[in-house]
Design a protein that fits this description.
This protein is an alpha/beta fold and 449 residues long. It has 16 helices and 15 strands. The chain has helices at 2-9, 24-29, 35-47, 61-70, 87-96, 118-135, 168-178, 215-220, 223-231, 257-270, 285-299, 317-322, 335-347, 371-378, 405-410, 424-434; strands at residues 77-83, 100-102, 104-110, 139-145, 157-164, 179-190, 193-200, 203-207, 246-249, 273-279, 306-311, 326-330, 353-356, 384-387, 440-446. The strands form 3 sheets. It has a 6-stranded mixed β-sheet with strand order 3-5-4-8-7-9. A 5-stranded mixed β-sheet has the order 2-1-6-10-15, sandwiched between helices. The chain has a 4-stranded parallel β-sheet with strand order 12-11-13-14. Helix 1 (2-9) packs parallel to helix 5 (87-96). The chain is globular. The two termini are 34 Å apart.
Length: 449
């Protein structure tokens, strides 16, 4: 999402999830593999990015921040977003022509453990987690284990997500050098929380993740979990994780409030305004941003009748605007995301064309819709509904979609001039005209003299 945002601000496309386009033919060849070999390919792709646990004490998160700010054009901006990730936020930043500085970063740590042993995963992560925290006093660590959607990956690696508690020198330098005098820092504040087990003052373990299975199913089991584990020949029929003793910002999406306090401190010192985009779950801003684009196209006298339904990191801000397409972002490819897009289509004027992308994770997980469920979504198009991968029947095993989604957008014949950025006043005007969006709050925190 960072790379997609930065490339848009550089005037560039976002093919192949930001990976080298020379890999596309190889990724497309995975369509010819049987299911078992595709699963091995999924695991292998994750292992190539995993970091040895012995390297945790050598990771300097400030160098990561230096890389982040180096992705963006060094020019003057009216506003900068800092905080939680959200695919709809990528498109909002594109519309406003502003950067986004993430709070949360993912470190895949090499680790071999049975996917249905969350307690074992937690124990193996203790030592590398403490090494990472000892080397970086300005972060908090959320160690996450999801045996549902990430079943293939957690065999070979574990999920460390750290959250910045302060801006740090690199972010502060970037804000000071690129934010216009009196400009605005927008806090992206996802309020999603999760029950966790405390491992230290800045260290928690999270069993489960946002997606198809509920938080209760991860902690207490149920019929759907038992059937899923039976289908995958697991030795257990429910997960036995460590006992939760706290509630924390959700590892992947949630915002840690300490950073918000530091942003307000920095803004007071340098005379910046602060606004907060608060949202209950990562998908809540999606209807608002989709409506914003439709409203924007109508103001530009562009047909606003084409919808691109995006999933997780399968998104493309540059081609979305080049083709006059309305973006609707889904958190993942599970039942809650299906309901989100169904509810949006129920409440809006029909679209002539609907394109659908689905992030492929290689697991028939608890709460995964069927291919027919997704076909029903694209069937709601008045003229043409299309899946932007190769074959919807292979969902969720089709890795080749990562090499195809941008090509499908380029096949859209419509082309429109790339627009100038919307202003914050125009965004305020849109919200005043449209009214409130459930689960989303746009707040002005301070206006320094």
């Amino acid at each position: 999402m960072l790379t997609a945002t930065a490339r848009y601000l550089r005037g560039e496309q976002f093919p192949a999830l930001g990976q080298p386009t020379g890999l596309k033919p190889l990724v497309k060849l995975t369509d010819r593999l049987p299911r078992r070999l595709r699963e091995i390919a999924f695991i292998g792709s994750g292992m190539t990015e995993a970091v040895s646990s012995r390297r945790m004490r050598h990771i300097d998160v400030e160098r990561v921040n230096e890389w982040v700010v180096g992705e963006y054009p060094q020019r003057s901006y009216p506003a900068v977003v800092v905080g939680s990730s959200c695919g709809a936020l990528v498109h909002l930043c594109a519309a406003l022509g502003i950067p986004w500085l993430p709070q949360t970063f993912f470190i895949p740590v090499r680790q071999w453990v049975h996917p249905d042993d969350p307690t074992g995963a937690m124990r193996r992560g203790l030592r590398p987690g403490r090494a990472l925290l000892d080397a970086n006093p300005d972060i908090q660590l959320h160690h996450m284990h999801d045996a549902n959607q990430d079943r293939l990956m957690v065999r070979a690696l574990t999920y460390f997500r750290y959250k910045r508690r302060v801006l740090g020198p690199a972010y502060e330098r970037f804000l000071h050098s690129t934010l216009r005098p009196g400009g605005t820092i927008i806090i992206s504040d996802c309020r999603r929380r999760w029950r966790t087990t405390t491992l230290g003052s800045r260290h928690v373990f999270q069993h489960g993740a946002v997606g198809g299975a509920t938080e209760e199913e991860f902690h207490e089991g149920g019929d759907r979990v038992a059937e899923y584990l039976h289908r995958y020949d697991s030795p257990v029929r429910r997960w036995h994780g460590p006992e939760p003793d706290s509630v924390s910002p959700e590892a992947e999406w949630g915002f840690a409030p300490a950073l918000g306090e530091d942003i307000e401190r920095f803004a007071r010192q340098h005379g910046y305004q602060v606004r907060r985009l608060a949202f209950d779950t990562p998908a809540k801003p999606s209807p608002m941003v989709a409506d914003l684009y439709r409203w924007w196209y109508q103001r530009r006298r562009i047909p606003a009748n084409r919808l691109f339904v995006e999933s997780f990191i399968v998104l493309e801000p540059w081609w979305t605007l080049r083709t006059g397409t309305v973006p609707f972002w889904m958190t993942f490819n599970m039942d809650p995301s299906l309901r989100d897009v169904q509810n949006y289509l129920d409440d809006r004027e029909p679209f002539d064309d609907i394109d659908l992308s689905l992030f492929q994770h290689g697991v028939e997980a608890v709460g995964a819709p069927s291919s027919d469920d997704w076909r029903a979504v694209i069937a709601r198009a008045r003229r043409r509904g299309r899946y932007v991968g190769q074959d919807l029947d292979t969902y969720p095993y089709e890795m080749s979609i990562f090499a195809r989604y941008d090509e499908a957008l380029r096949e859209i014949p419509a082309r429109y001039p790339m627009p100038g950025a919307l202003t914050l006043d125009e965004f305020d005007g849109f919200l005043a005209e449209r009214g409130d969006y459930p689960g989303v709050r746009w707040e002005r925190l301070s206006v320094p003299a």
